[in-house]
Amino acid sequence: MERGNQGFGRLPVLITADGAMIEQVLRMAAAVAVEIDVHADLEAVRGGWASAPLIMVGADLAGALAEDRPARRAGVVLVGAGAHDEGGVTGEIWRDAVELGAEHVVQLPDGGGWLIQRLGESVDGPSRGGFITAVTSASGGSGVSTLAGSLALAAQSISGRVLLIDGDAHGGGLDLLLGAEEASGIRWPDLAAAAGRLSATTLDYALPHPDGVALLSHGRADAVAVPAEAFAAVLAAGVRGYEQVFIDVPRSTWASAPDMLDRADRVILLVPGRVRGIAAAAAALPWLRSFTKDLSVVVRATSRGVAAREVERALGLASLRVVPEQLQIATREDRGEPLLANDAYAKAVRAVLADALRANGPAA
Predict the structure, then answer these.
(1) What is the pLDDT of residues 167-194, one digit of tens each?
(2) 12-21 pLDDT per residue, tens
(3) What angle do CA 26, 100, 10 make, to 5 degrees?
(4) Which residue range forms the structural domain that includes residue 231?
(5) C-alpha to C-alpha distance for 234 and 195, rounded to whole angstroms
(6) Cys-Cys link to 233, which of 187, 194, 272, 346 (CB 3.0-4.6 A)?
(7) Which residues does residue 299 pair with via DSSP β-bridges, in sequence order?
(8) What span, in angstroms and rounded, lies between the C-alpha atoms of 321 and 299?
(9) pLDDT score, position 171
């Protein structure tokens, strides 16, 4: 039996003639949107033995394959059916596993959950455990998108794998902010129907990468409301595929999509140094703290605005990070020039990023 042979060498491979096992593994692969090759011809397997990302060997053909003495390689799993015991067929499986150099022996159906996870990893690689930072404000026009984009750019120079997610369907698109409005790649309207497991590798390949940052932006022609299922699928792929994930979260989504904040490892609340902005932040802090794991507050200085120490006093906080006002940023945004320059604003952004990185463990 041969199935899906066109991708042989690039796809996970199942080597078996057991029809029941084939059906079980195909169902597991479908659950994580992974295509696999199925082979019962051991001769045909030789050509892709070294290149396939994962080799699953059924117990029915494991002995014959072991006699063929294929080259040792990582990513070989021996698949059997039934419960573990001390001898009999299962004992033979363990001997075959040693001969093949298998990294794991999985018994179906009990080991199905493990095999599903391993199938997903065979395509995307092990999860990078992306640290999620949501950037938001209690008042509009605070510069949240600019800060989120700046943090992503600063993180890109450190970690190299950064995803920036646009959470504002009516904000005009973060691609404009990063000068990527003409860049090819998918936007939120292309992913609004996503559900279940989304391949991190495929997502990264499809997104535009302005200045190296993977960007999922809303479009400008058709604003779409992103279903919770689609957002969850994208965020899960982001955690698997990137070291750092940043979400631009507008105040308007707090009631309709609080999971943007709830799923974050850290939430940054940007407070403009204006009386109304400070009052809005003070009112929002108790609600944000009621479900947010880690909340930090950053003050955006404004000309002739309230001093940072007064903001601290009004909010009952101390030693807040301050992002200075930079009038040149708006000009750079309009011209599609890089957001970050070697100035006081960039230095402040990197200090805010360092706080988030310390919360996640790695050195800034």
Answers:
(1) 988 888 888 888 888 888 889 988 888 7
(2) 999 999 999 9
(3) 45
(4) 131-360
(5) 9
(6) 194
(7) 271, 322
(8) 6
(9) 80
Whether a cis peptide bond, with omega within 30° of 0, leads into 109 is yes
Predicted pLDDT of residue 82: 64
Decide if pLDDT at 225 tops 60. Answer: yes
Residues 226 and 195 in one domain: yes
CATH label of the domain that carries residue 113: 3.40.50.2300
Rounded to whole angstroms, how far apart are CA atoms 26 and 13? Answer: 11
Torsion over CA of 233, 178, 123 and 30, rounded to 10 degrees?
A: 30
pLDDT of residue 51: 85
| Whether the Cβ atoms of residue 80 and residue 90 lie closer than 8 Å to each other | yes
The Cβ of residue 99 has, within 10 Å, a number of other Cβ atoms equal to 17
Structure tokens at 22: 């084939």
Tracing tokens 């014959």 back to the chain, one arrives at: 64
What CATH number does residue 232 fall under? 3.40.50.300
User: Among candidates 108, 122, 129, 103, which has minimal Cα distance to 34?
Assistant: 122
Mean pLDDT on 325-341: 67
Most confident of 88-102, 115-129, 218-232, 278-292: 278-292
How many Å is the Cα radius of gyration of the chain? Answer: 25
- Distance between CA atoms of 44 and 289, rounded to whole angstroms? 59
Q: Which residues of 183-205 are buried (b: 16+ CB within 10 A; e: fewer)?
A: eebebbeebeebeebbbbeebbe
- pLDDT digit string (tens) for 64-114? 998 888 888 988 999 997 654 444 446 688 888 898 999 899 999 888 888
DSSP letter (8 states) at residue 182: T
| pLDDT given at position 336 | 63
Closest CA to 92 of 104, 80, 108: 80
Domain end marker among 124, 144, 168 = 124
Answer whether 187's CB lies under 8 Å from 165's CB. no
| Number of domains forming the structure of the chain | 2
Q: Give the residues across from 302 on adjacent strands.
A: none
Of 186, 131, 180, nearest in space to 159 by CA? 131
- CA 153/CA 357 separation, integer angstroms: 14
Peptide bond into 250 cis (omega under 30): no
